[in-house]
Amino acid sequence: MIGLAVFLGLALFLIVYLVMLYNGLVNLKHNVSKSLANIDVLLKQRHDELPKLIETCKQYMSYEQDTLSRVIEARQLVANAQDKGDIKSLGAAETQMRSGLGQLFALAENYPELKADEAFGKLQQRISGLESAIADRREVYNEAVNNNNVRIEQFPDVIVARLFNFKDFDLLSFRQEELADVDVKALFN
After folding, report:
1. Coil, helix or strand for 156?
2. Interior/surface letters 100-133, b for 16+ CB within 10 angstroms, e for the rest
3. At what angle do helices 87-108 and 2-60 cross, to 10 degrees?
4. Sign of CA dihedral 54, 55, 60, 61
5. Which domain holds residue 175?
6. 135/174 Cα distance (integer angstroms)
7. What does the pLDDT read at residue 174?
8. pTM for the whole structure
9. Least confident of 23-32, 79-88, 164-173
10. CA quadruple 27, 29, 30, 36: dihedral positive or negative?
11. Comparing C-alpha atoms, which of 120, 137, 135, 133 is closest to residue 36?
12. What is the DSSP letter of 165?
């Protein structure tokens, strides 16, 4: 009788423990999804603001069509990567977008009328704020991905993760050349 009670107690403990592991893994998986959705919100906001910025710049920067075209192209690459859910392409497209915006803002220095335009100033501040928020959210996303990926590889979580087919996620990362310092002087040439 005591042996049966001990066995049932251990079985109940094991079931409760496995349920807790499972629920913890589910929570981590959903934190990754939530973090990515938070990035998507900011990317959409920036995506909506960029045409206004480009239109404002076009009025003043008639000789800078190449830079404006690169920003428009980068905007489309970000949207395509988002639509496909391709995290690796999103990281590369984001880098291209930030580079294009950096060039655009640097070139704006050559156009005093543009810099003085109230709409341009507000859009520049709005987009710069969104860029900072996106960087912060990328950090939160990568932390959620790391927590998930570590847990599904640790024992005993790995048993539950494999049993219920939990997957790892890709970090939002940069290629080595994307991490190099930007040559600001070259942007003004």
Report:
1. coil
2. bbebbbbbbeebeebeebeebeebbeebeebbeb
3. 30
4. positive
5. 2-187
6. 12
7. 60
8. 0.72
9. 79-88
10. positive
11. 137
12. T
Q: Which DSSP string corresponds to 82-115?
A: HHHT-HHHHHHHHHHHHHHHHHHHHHHTT-HHHH
Contact 112, 119 (CB under 8 A): no
CATH number of the domain encompassing residue 101: 1.20.1440.20
Looking at every residue in the chain, the average pLDDT score rounds to 83
pLDDT tens, residue by residue, 131-176:
889 889 999 999 999 999 999 999 999 999 999 999 999 888 765 5
**Rounded to the nearest 5 degrees, what angle is found at the Cα of 62, between the Cα atoms of 102 and 116?**
65
Cβ atoms 98, 72 nearer than 8 A: no
Q: How many domains does the chain contain in total?
A: 1
pLDDT at position 143: 95
SS3 52: helix
